[in-house]
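note to self — DONT lose this again. spent like an hour looking for the file last time. sequence + predicted structure for the chain T wanted, 153 res
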Amino acid sequence: MKENDEWYTPVEIIRSLGEFDLDPASSPEAFRLNRSAKKIYTAQDNGLIQSWHGRVWLNPPYSNPLLQDFLKKMAEHNRGIALVFSKIEAKWFHEIVFEYATAVKFLYNRIQFLKPDGTKGTQPRNGSMLVAYGVADAEIRSKCPIKGKFLYL
C-alpha cells in the first residue's frame, strides 16, 4: 500500500450507516480512530485473499490496482457499502460500479479524511460517493443523513 493511501474515514460517516461486520482494508490506527467494523483485515492480512462475511464497510486504498481489486471483491460479496472518490470518468466506475452496484450516493461535501495521527487532512481534490452493494444496504444508505444525491443503478 502506498503511504498516501493511509487516510481514514471520519467516525461520523461510518456511524450514520449502521454497524458493519467487516472492514477488509483497515489498519490498527484506523480502527482506533473509527471502530469501522466488528472485525478488520489489515494490509498484512491482505483482505483480498481473506474470506469476507456479513455486512462490509470498505474504504479501499485509492491507488490502482488495489482500488479496482477491492471493488471487484466487494461486487462479488454483494453486501455492504464502499466509500470511493466520485470519478465517473474512471474505467473502474463504468466496469465495476455501474455494472454491479445496487445504488450510489454522490456526496454534496468533500470529506476531510483523517490522518494516521487522528488530525483532519486537507480537503481532497475529488468529491466522494457511497456505493451500496445489495438491496438492504441501498435502503440503509438512502435514509442516512449524509447530504448527497442518491440514485439506484
